[in-house]
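For reference, the entry.
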Amino acid sequence: MPKGRRTRGLMSLTWEVKNPASSMATVTLLILTFLCKGLQSQHPGYELKALEAVTVQRGLCVHIPCNFTYSTSEDRYPEELYVYWIKDNGAGSYIRNKWHPNAGSVVASSDKDQSIASFAGNRFQLTGNLSEGDCSFSINDVKFEDEGQYYFRIEKGTLRFSYRVSFILPRVSVTELAEKPKILNLPEVVLGKSITLICQAPGTCPWKESWSQPQISWSNLPGTTTAQNHQHSSGSWTFASGFTFTPSLQDQGRALTCRVRYPAVDTTVANTISLEVVYPPQDIRITRPGHPDISAQEEKLVVREGDTVSLLCEAQGKPIPSVTWLKNNKPLNNNMQGSKDTLRLSNIKSEDAGMYQCQAENPHGSIRKNISVIVQYAPKLSKNPEKNTACWRKDNDILCKCSLHSKPPPQIHWQLDGKTVAENTSTADLKVSSSVQKNEVTSSLIWTGSPDGDLSIICLGNNSLGVYTMQFHLSSLKTASSELIVPLVVGLILMKVLFCFVFFSLAFWYSNWRKAPLTQEGRRKQKE
């Protein structure tokens, strides 16, 4: 019992909120005047320590801490101590069957037989341990009519005392509900990956009656909901709802709303978020700025030698994908690239032809697109030394060979002293044949008989990009014997080297064989 000087002392007035960040009320406690050691009123032994001002949002709850003592000299009755919290609104009330005009409206009491004001119902609850002088109380489902000043009263036998005059008394102010629900567990929303969001209703309160509990709903998106309510050790509840859905690209930027309705005060609050759906790169495209779109089916680009070409690679994705260019699956060096998403090929050569890859990637994946760059060029001499373009005499014949390469492959014609010889010509004194290997064409001419004089032979190769000519004069042609001397000498030297190598190899092998140890059978035969 809190009895004057014999009590353990006034309890520290600390409002212990079990979950301040998500309490049922966003309560702003305005402590205008606070007595650190209690108020010594004009009534010795009677002290009350309470908050002077409390602000709470409508529909939520509030806890009001309080400590009290009463005079020891008047504590001589064995009867039970009854306490009352009364709203000081000038109304009359029966207290323990006795009418008290202008006493106010009783909202909470430890007397189970005490009548409670109709507006209070069972929303006002004593929460403190009276035997330790704790007179704290709470208000649930706060309404505007709960506004006002409250005072504390005790009765014990013939002892009756109201802490009303000359005491610091709590005054409750009620504001409109403005706190929004909290949408928790909001990680990255990944395309095609199921996700669960949590909507938590404002406040942490007892909510003992189901009809007054917060009602949570989701809107603007198909999905499934599950209750995520949690009861704390204090008996209070936090109400929440889980919403599970699988995002699609159509959900990008879509508004998702969580609504919480408080039935006791018929009030609804809501919170809306805009979905940001992340996804791997897709819809990759390669274009040539300023030119018609490159055919997605052909996936190739035909250019001419000497051209300068820029290729732009773009892909959809969130976050925006980074782009890398490769050739034959190997990263390109920097001097072949412009910006990261643009490939620039300057003064194109035939060596620049090949398969190029554009790779787009972000943290959620990567994608590639290939494009074949085909370089066209006018006819040139063959790069193969074995296919040199030349003419020579052999006996009474003239033999000519002309090898050219180009893209597209060239057509080769011969002109003999100004007259054109058709391809694959075959007459008694003239034969023309040709072979094709990829972009290289080799044409051979055999002119039999005894042509002489200062006649000319021309090899002419052409395609859509240009013409190449090579001219020979009969008077300057060498005979095949002089042309073959050097190859013949080289051949003889090679044969001699090969013969020496084989001879010395056999000699070395025979010498080692003779030195090898003999078996017993071998020794016996050797003696015989």
